[in-house]
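INTERNAL AUDIT FORM
Audit reference: QA-55
Scope: verify that the stored structure record matches its stored sequence.
Auditor: D.O.
Record contents follow.
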Amino acid sequence: MKRTRFYGSHRALGGRMIEFFGWEMPVEFKGIIEEHLAVRQAAGLFDVSHMGEIVVRGKGALAFVQHLTPNDAGRLSVQQVQYTALTTPQGTFVDDMLVYCMSAEEYLLVVNAANMDKDYAWVTAHQGGFDVSVENASDRYSQLALQGPKAQAILQPLTDINLEGLKSFWSARGKVAGIDALVSRTGYTGEDGFEIYTTSEDPAVILDEIIKLGRPLGLLPIGLGARDTLRLEAKLMLYGNDIDDTTTVLEADLKWIIKFKKGDFLGREALEKQLAEGLKRKIVGFELTEKGIPRPHYQVYSGGRNVGQVTSGTFSPYLKKSIGLVYLPVEISGIGTEIEVGIREKMIKGKIVATPFYKRGESA
């Protein structure tokens, strides 16, 4: 298994390590519920160095990114960040990702760890005809995510970047704990926070200094377990569960990342056709009204008919209720629609609810 450059720090902090798509990563430190609540109420620090980084450079960089993705990278200013996807000609997902505009001729694509090799192969396979070079820079980068309402207060003393002036989905270069880094106001938790990228060979000092400064303010190191429950509360998609190469961007309730007016892109024709004909299914959120915990692949029923399966599901530590996502036929996808989830040979009642389940600033 591969290890991130923070592996020693995880061991020292008591992290329980598991295999995660070829990486040895911490799944928890103090416990998923305690870590989850620390992020909602104070702050949490995540090692996300397993994520992939693909660098696109050249005079054709913008045109190439526009070809690969449905969102409009032409709207990005230098140092601005955008959520988007790599799409197939069918309008489905190769992956979802962030695009960083580093300069007029350089873009950084941040993709999921599970898809790194596949994504790089996809990008290079479509490179022909564009004046670009493509580099898989994943092994050079380490990445930390500092998330939560106290994230700015914890990070500011450690960096020369003015975090107060750093808007959501913007980035800046500077030093963090004396190490050159790229810091963006982005995250995967539904909270305010920052993601810190560095190509330093020894970046552990950043993690150690953040932990040292943050602990008195309630910060905890966070594992993969709480990362998943946090992102689900915020209805942030997980590739392989909620989106994949069988689900279109429209079905995944991500129409807002499609900019048809920008011109052609992979999947445009298929998505325009689906939009014109109308969706047959879409992803929705639900909560259980009876005791039980929905897990991925549990079957979902409506009126005694099997209508889908849970894509993501858990007991929400913050909301204290069982929640999940499911693709349903559009005619039964309205808020308030009653459903049932098959859990251990029992039919557990639930209902469709508005998403995201959790919004920053709202009480549980």
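Auditor finding: record pair retrieved intact. The chain has eight helices and 19 strands.
Action required: none
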